[in-house]
Amino acid sequence: MTRTTVALAVAGLVGHAASVSAQPTPTFSKDVAPILYKNCANCHRAGEIGPMPLLSYKDARPYARAISTRVENGTMPPWHADDPSRTRFLNDRSLSPAEKDVLVRWARGGAAEGNPKDLPAPPQFADGWMMGKPDAVFTMQEDYPIPASGTLDYKFFEIPTNLTEDKWLQAFEVRPGVRAVVHHVIAYVRPGDAGQPEARPAAAQPGAPRPTPPFSPGEGMRRPADAPKPDRAPIENDRAAKRNPGAWLAGYAPGHSLRVYEPGTAIKIPKGAIITVQMHYTTNGTPTTDRTSIGLKFANEPPTAELVVVPLQNANFVLKAGTSETRVDAEMTVNTDVTLWSALPHTHVRGKRWEVAAIYPDGRTELILNVPKYDFNWQTDYIFKTPLVLPKGTKLKTSAWYDNSTANKSNPDSTKDVYWGDQTWEEMQFTAFTFSINKSPATTAAGR
Q1: What are phi and psi of 116, to 5 degrees?
Q2: pLDDT one-digit tens code per residue, 48-60
Q3: Measured between alpha carbons, how far is 180 from 60 in angstroms, rounded to an integer?
């Protein structure tokens, strides 16, 4: 390297340092508030899941260092899919490098307020709802008592809708009465009874071939009959399911409470439908009561694509005591042309990463979702920005990895083998896919 080259390199470094130092220190009013309003305020406001509000300088200033730390280590805003380009998912909550830089430099530079005249108008929210004012709210018809201790089986509560016509669900939000004791909520919908037995499909003609279902799960994924039973006394369930609850309507888990479907897509809610709410409660040392509500927004007209939510799970596994790396796969075949809109992977506290792959009829395999750091406390329905068109014969393969060792700080007990089970200290391998059935043959593959 010549002296001239060295001199130019040094000059370049000095010039870069000077340009960085010349950047004005961000202020809350001008630079930070727009980022917080867009990315954080929906959760960080009174009555929502964020532990503190971040709507004003007075709110945010005490947490400037914590905000900087969480932003730098990637834990806030919570987003766990691997997508550096930030182009694959419609609901990507991550911050851009420029936004992270602003928040970090603001905290390190003294966390100044700046000129209040620079402050943009604060976001407006519907009282009590993150998605905006619902068209209808359906609430459990009782305050259900949760004891201070003990294990509770899933409870099922029916809610009549009294709808006088078919409706199309455009958005939902599930609001637990007491978040601290609600592990998850799944709301199902079925046609109303109207004093008649449940409608059943017409019986097939003798000798007629059985119709092929649109989705076929793989073999060997049921919980083995000889798997150990839960190590506890049987529990009498005072709110057991009365019948088949119907089709999936809405869901709640930590970090996931609402979904707004894309224009032209919706889930059908039939006239007079009954909503069955499956509640998974976890005791926490304090007795309380819960009365969960579900807010719905309806589409103004029937959609061009009717949505269905299809679960895929593998209950046939064992996580050996002390093992830090156990992989469990599940597989489903698509028997008709479909469009895949989103995927929501779910494990309990031993789950540590996820992958979802599409295996096309021509033999190609594409990784369509990679979650390298799964977090039970922030579960996400990953919505594809460009929906994936999957031709008939495509296989969807899900893979989850688990840590049942002492290295997992969330592990309830690393000395025991773990099997599929409903309770948080047991485990699941479960994914909820949102599909629509294509009316014409698929000619494209994912992302094309």
Answers
A1: -55, -20
A2: 788 899 999 999 9
A3: 25
